[in-house]
């Protein structure tokens, strides 16, 4: 049995490593990617563009639901993206009270440029690791997620709504199936 101080120190060390890992993922791989790609986008704006790329045009209400945001927040977000020429907003033919939001060609190119840049940075980091370390990282991340994804509300909130890009080995799909016995709808 480990002394309490050793266990507490280890927990503190793991927490510190997790914080640093999250910072590398967010700062190095996401924030710098946005700046380096010349996109001048916020993370929220990028998530909106990625959602529209996955799902095609949708209403503001559908977008708010898909991004887990309030309708007023989505309205402001879309306003900024319209001004940047990355999305369009027009009245729906079937309901003039509702608007349809869609990516422009510039918006599609921006998402692709950012995805390519992000993948290159991620690959560069992984290439500095041995294949064994890469496997251990994948195993440890899957184990951590499996242990942490123990509430259906959390799983549903974290779901990226990947749609056709969804893979059967997605940790969220696995966690939801383990919790409920039914598949998670990724649309």
Automatic annotation (TrEMBL):
<keyword id="KW-0805">Transcription regulation</keyword>
<dbReference type="InterPro" id="IPR039422">
    <property type="entry name" value="MarR/SlyA-like"/>
</dbReference>
<dbReference type="Pfam" id="PF01047">
    <property type="entry name" value="MarR"/>
</dbReference>
<dbReference type="InterPro" id="IPR011991">
    <property type="entry name" value="ArsR-like_HTH"/>
</dbReference>
<dbReference type="InterPro" id="IPR036388">
    <property type="entry name" value="WH-like_DNA-bd_sf"/>
</dbReference>
<protein>
    <submittedName>
        <fullName>MarR family transcriptional regulator</fullName>
    </submittedName>
</protein>
<keyword id="KW-0238">DNA-binding</keyword>
<dbReference type="InterPro" id="IPR036390">
    <property type="entry name" value="WH_DNA-bd_sf"/>
</dbReference>
<feature type="domain" description="HTH marR-type">
    <location>
        <begin position="1"/>
        <end position="146"/>
    </location>
</feature>
<dbReference type="InterPro" id="IPR023187">
    <property type="entry name" value="Tscrpt_reg_MarR-type_CS"/>
</dbReference>
<keyword id="KW-0804">Transcription</keyword>
<dbReference type="InterPro" id="IPR000835">
    <property type="entry name" value="HTH_MarR-typ"/>
</dbReference>
